[in-house]
Write a structure and sequence with these properties.
Layout lengths: L1 E5 L3 H12 L3 E5 L3 H8 L10 H10 L3 E4 L2 H7 L2 E4 L14 H13 L4 E5 L7 H15 L6 E5 L9 H6 L4 E4 L3 H10 L10 E4 L1 H32 L3 H9 L20 H14 L5 H13 L2 H10 L7 E5 L14 H11 L3 E5 L4 H8 L5 E3 L3 H5 L4 E4 L11 H7 L4 E4 L6 H6 L3 E3 L9
Parallel strand pairs: 1-2, 1-4, 2-3, 4-5, 5-6, 7-8, 9-10, 9-12, 10-11, 12-13, 13-14
Bound molecules: uridine-5'-diphosphate-xylopyranose.
The site of uridine-5'-diphosphate-xylopyranose has 19 residues, from helix 9.
InterPro entries: 6-PGluconate_DH-like_C_sf, NAD(P)-bd_dom_sf, UDP-Glc/GDP-Man, UDP-Glc/GDP-Man_DH_C, UDP-Glc/GDP-Man_DH_C_sf, UDP-Glc/GDP-Man_DH_dimer, UDP-Glc/GDP-Man_DH_N, UDPglc_DH_bac
Function: Catalyzes the conversion of UDP-glucose into UDP-glucuronate, one of the precursors of teichuronic acid.
EC number: 1.1.1.22
Length: 444
């Protein structure tokens, strides 16, 4: 099948490469020429395990091509995916400028039947706007070409996106026309082999499914962070509570890990956008507001613990920060808790020695040569001469460090663990003062 993907960002690139991987001819379009040139030379602009291999392999096989020529894109594929960014605008609603501009181009250049598929995360009702936009451009051209609009949200996790695409748990397709539904079912058939994962529904339900899924996961995390905060006050251990409730299959073990708050490009943005959509339709969502408020507060809990330990005045102190990305296996620092922690420490006059296995270049892009930030060469280098170690992302390499070295190189043996990756007894026996999330501090 011939497929065009508008937007060669994270979602577009993974979608394009995976469709090519199963034998389709895919053309990825992006207005950023530099990005397209780099992709044509086999350079991937993002860090995503397994992606580079399939991009390079399928480009070489001639099944995956890149262009910045929009017209060529519209003429190429029967399936036209929209996978452009929907950044939040000032009030937290999703900004649809890019989505509607692609719709306009499709309307402008379309010469025969096209299926326009929305993959970008967009508010309920966007498919209707896309349809209206294309229809109005066609009317201006006095063209009667037929087209259909479909909603097909993505559920890709950063760090595991290729796998999520190749072996999806569900393929959500919002579609009105029965014939288009079958064309979509055919397109996804290579990824829908062992059992039925294709779930077709009306368009608005598909659009809402995406937000509901992310909001539910974010709710689980905020709920658990709140339980952690309660555990700290009543002297309980949230890790025991987590195991205790997770074993109830109705609750489950996933997404109930307390920590320093969720970050990334989806949860913060989508919770806010759904709340705005509800508001627009006259509904005040107390749960969504609380999920966001708890998360915002959670990002500050570790600095509060630092102040409790060292006293309000932390100016002049130095902190080693391990982990900058919003989660392991990605270099993405969008809405990462580390950014709040860095900001609060610098504001207080402290300095930071930061280290991350892959996000160093991203950190340097964000902070440049800002005063108070030292970019460490490795975890050991970050610890050297610091007053305390602060762990913010649970990268595997941080799980079993050389604690003798850490103790020797820190000015005082204090560890603030924002992800509960160390065993409190072990830390105390090893001579550390140890603070974690939702568990009593040790060695204080
Ligand atoms: C998420 C959804 O999982 C994915 O389906 C959707 O398409 C996009 O948004 P992603 O943002 O890549 O994916 O990250 P995810 O693995 O879901 O983690 C999100 C955040 O929640 C991270 O900051 C992570 O550290 C945090 N988290 C996750 C917790 O704090 N506790 C948990 O138990 C799980």
């Amino acid at each position: 099948m011939k497929i065009t993907i508008f937007g060669s960002g994270y979602v577009g690139l993974v979608t394009g490469a995976c469709f090519a991987e199963v034998g389709n001819d895919v053309l990825c379009v992006d207005i950023d020429r530099k990005k397209i040139d780099a992709l044509n030379e086999g350079h991937i602009p993002i860090y995503e395990p397994g992606l580079e291999e399939i991009v390079v392999e399928n480009s070489r096989a001639g099944r995956l091509k890149f262009t910045s020529d929009i017209r060529e894109g519209v003429e190429f594929g029967l399936y036209q995916f929209i996978a452009v960014g929907t950044p939040p605008d000032e009030d937290g609603s999703a900004d649809l400028r890019h989505v509607l501009s692609v719709a306009e181009s499709i309307g402008t250049y379309m010469q025969e039947y096209r299926i326009v598929i929305n993959k970008s995360t967009v508010p309920v009702g966007t498919a209707d706007l896309v349809r209206e936009k294309i229809s109005s451009v066609l009317a201006e051209r006095s063209s009667g070409v037929d087209f259909d609009v479909v909603s097909n949200p993505e559920f890709l996790k950063e760090g595991d996106a290729v796998n999520d695409f190749m072996k999806p748990e569900r393929i959500i397709v919002g579609v009105d026309d029965p014939r288009t539904k079958e064309l979509l079912r055919f397109l996804y058939s290579p990824f829908n082999r062992s059992h039925e994962r294709f779930i077709a529904m009306d368009i608005r339900s598909a659009e809402l499914t995406k937000y509901a899924a992310n909001a539910m996961l974010a709710t689980k995390i905020s709920f658990m962070n709140e339980i952690a905060n309660i555990a700290e006050r009543v002297g309980a251990d949230v890790e025991a509570v987590r195991r205790g409730i997770g074993s109830d299959s109705r609750i489950g073990f996933s997404f109930i890990y307390p920590g320093v708050g969720y970050g990334g490009s989806c949860f913060p943005k989508d919770v806010q956008a759904l709340e705005r959509t509800a508001h627009k339709y006259g509904y005040h969502s107390r749960i969504l507001q609380a999920v966001e408020a708890v998360n915002e507060d959670q990002k500050s809990t570790i600095v509060r613990k630092i102040r409790l330990h060292f006293g309000e005045e932390i100016g002049g102190r130095v902190f080693a920060l391990w982990g900058l990305s919003f989660k392991p296996n990605t270099d993405d620092m969008r809405a990462a808790p580390s950014r709040r922690v860095i900001e609060e420490l610098l504001q207080a006059g402290a300095s930071v020695r930061v280290y991350d296995p892959v996000a160093m270049h991203e950190a340097e892009r964000i902070y440049g040569d800002r005063e108070g930030i030292y970019y460490a060469a490795n975890p050991e280098d970050a610890v050297k001469g610091s007053d305390a170690l602060v762990v913010l992302t649970e990268w595997l390499v941080f799980r079993s460090p050389d604690f003798e070295m850490v103790k020797r190189d820190l000015k005082t043996p204090v560890v603030f663990d924002g992800r509960n990756i160390y065993n409190p007894e072990f830390m105390e026996i090893s001579g550390f003062t140890y603070y974690s999330v939702g568990r009593p501090p040790r060695g204080v």
